[in-house]
Design brief:
There is one protein chain. By secondary structure, the protein is an all-alpha fold. The chain has helices at residues 5-21, 23-33, 38-55, 63-77, 82-95, 104-122, 132-147, 152-168, 193-211; strands at residues 3-4, 101-102. The chain is globular and about 45 Å long. The protein starts with a strand and ends with a helix.
Length: 212
């Protein structure tokens, strides 16, 4: 995998498609422990991102430019907590991706920055049943893969797999942050929708590399 600007653009398109394909699933997860609008909000946001990306007269010069476009668009089009959280994640990531191509360590930097952004905005830590529970294991797996000499594809694939496992591991947790925390013990038994969408976003990055 070459994690270049073309890959970043494919990642946007793959994410939009995956989120649309899983709209009903995300909506149902959010209906159980939230407002029930996460699926629709995410679909609307990434459709807007794709529209803006495709309308550019000149292609982005760096991976960071693609990520910044995602950030600003999501912040302005996605309602609820998801817009600010995802927007901040992509914005922080864009600042460490001012290059034409990411290597394995670069992927780690992007994911670490995204996690830091989410935690700065949402004040959540691992174990509180939020998207952080997908991002923390993703970062840990990415670091391990990069330290073992993994290239961008291997690092990203490790992160995506760990994010999926992290999202699934939110099912038994009791939410202590966000809307779901209002349910207390009743929030247990349901996968966190933000963690689920985070896993989809990272899996889309893997799909983008395979498509390239």
């Amino acid at each position: 995998m070459t994690a270049d600007v073309a890959w970043a653009s494919r990642w946007v398109h793959e994410t939009a498609q995956s989120i649309a394909d899983h709209r009903d699933e995300l909506t149902e997860l959010d209906r159980q422990i939230g407002d029930g609008d996460h699926g629709e909000n995410m679909v609307r946001g990434f459709r807007a991102v794709v529209a803006k990306l495709d309308a550019l007269e000149e292609p982005p010069a760096t991976v960071g430019e693609v990520l910044k476009l995602v950030a600003t668009t999501l912040m302005s089009t996605v309602g609820g907590a998801a817009g600010p959280l995802y927007g901040t994640a992509y914005l922080r990531a864009s600042k460490v991706a001012d290059v034409t191509e990411l290597d394995g360590k670069g992927v780690v930097a992007v994911l670490e920055a995204a996690l830091e952004g989410v935690q700065a905005r949402g004040k959540a830590t691992a174990g509180e049943k939020t998207m952080v529970d997908a991002l923390v294991p993703a970062v840990e797996a990415a670091v391990a893969a990069a330290d073992s000499g993994g290239d961008a594809a291997q690092v990203f694939a490790a992160a995506a797999q760990a994010a999926q496992q992290g999202a699934e591991a939110t099912v038994p947790l009791v939410a202590t942050k966000g809307r779901a925390s209002y349910l207390g013990e009743r929030s247990a038994g349901h996968e966190d929708p933000g963690a689920a969408s985070t896993a989809l976003v990272l899996a889309a990055g893997v799909a983008a590399s395979e498509a390239g």
